[in-house]
Amino acid sequence: MRMHNPPHPGEIIKTLCLEPLGLTVTQAAAALGVSRKTLSAILNGRAGVSPEMAVRLSIAFGTSSESWLNQQTQYDLWHAERRRKQLRVAKLAPA
Amino acid sequence: MRMHNPPHPGEIIKTLCLEPLGLTVTQAAAALGVSRKTLSAILNGRAGVSPEMAVRLSIAFGTSSESWLNQQTQYDLWHAERRRKQLRVAKLAPA
DNA sequence: GACGAGTGTAACCTAGAACGTTACGGGTCA
DNA sequence: TGACCCGTAACGTTCTAGGTTACACTCGTC
Fold first, then answer.
1. Do A51 and B76 touch (CB under 8 A)?
2. Dihedral sign, CA of B67, B55, A9, B71?
């Protein structure tokens, strides 16, 4: 179980991909084949990395699509876990 | 890169959780706190495992929510990768 | 054969995410 | 001032997750 808030994948894209290459949001969006708005939303944490976007990132930046999507999964899961106590679920097979 | 079609998480829930415990879909849905329709859709591959559902499964069956959601991620990614060739994306940082 | 349980699923709803285009206002800098 | 980049608001479409209700099917069992 992770203790701290995992960073949104958008931050990682910005700091590890765009900034080192000196890319603007407009340039990167064009390269990825999505609108500037779509990329902007991801970079600012207002949208998630979809499976298709993960593949796009892997093509553009040469990393694995799995790693991109896993980052999003961890981020989503961390927020879902915060509401674990609010879920009314019966234990069927106690550990 | 996975070669073969990964199984949908619904199949795993059915064969590894419901059947060993002799649970009906109706019983399991009630325990999970979702409608019978919702669980049925997941079991038959017509819906995915959401982050919240992954937490529900982890409570009911004592496994980690991460493992449930990762299975869904791998499934989604496999299908997204099949369309990799159709995406028009420029390579920005060739490996 | 009749009946109830379990199941799949169709029809309807809401909410939200992921896309798109267009357009506007605020920076920064030559 | 003008050019460029950025965030974002407003509008749209499409898809997914979730709900309720209702129907038809397949089983056992009585």
1. yes
2. positive
